[in-house]
Design goal:
- This protein is mostly helical.
- It has one domain: Cytochrome c-like domain (Cytochrome Bc1 Complex, Chain D, domain 2), CATH 1.10.760.10.
- Helices cover 63% and strands 4% of the residues.
- The protein is built from 5 helices and 2 strands, in the order αβααααβ.
- The protein has a two-stranded antiparallel sheet with strand order 1-2.
- Helix 2 packs across helix 5 and helix 4 packs across helix 5.
- The radius of gyration is 19 Å and the shape is elongated.
- The termini are far apart.
Length: 106
């Protein structure tokens, strides 16, 4: 009985660890993150908003793991606003400009 319980615990533990590793791997950045000097003033404000507002619920790797075009980022940002992200219309546009301007990693 003890061996069966130990084996079940070990299998459950390995499953959880495996899922954790898979989850972490899928959130690796897929875009190049430009330096502040490479950004327009509006995109720079968008970057700061992403760093301040999006990290309330997500780490930046999760944000940068997506590679969307402008329409994709509009949908994503609107979904986050519906879920409670605090962005007004002007801030939304800045965030979208920044995120849509990110280049995929080669």
């Amino acid at each position: 009985m003890f061996k069966a319980n130990t084996l079940n615990f070990l299998m459950a533990f390995l499953l959880v660890v495996g899922l954790f590793i898979i989850g972490c791997a899928s959130s690796a950045p897929k875009v190049q993150i430009p330096g502040d000097s490479e950004l327009s003033p509006t995109a720079l404000e968008g970057k700061k908003l992403v760093e301040e507002r999006c990290t309330i619920c997500h780490n930046l790797n999760r944000v940068y793991a997506k590679n969307e075009d402008k329409a994709g980022w509009e949908d994503e940002v609107d979904e986050m606003i519906e879920k409670g992200a605090k962005l007004n219309t002007e801030e939304r546009e800045k965030v979208i400009e920044y995120l849509a301007g990110l280049k995929p990693l080669k």
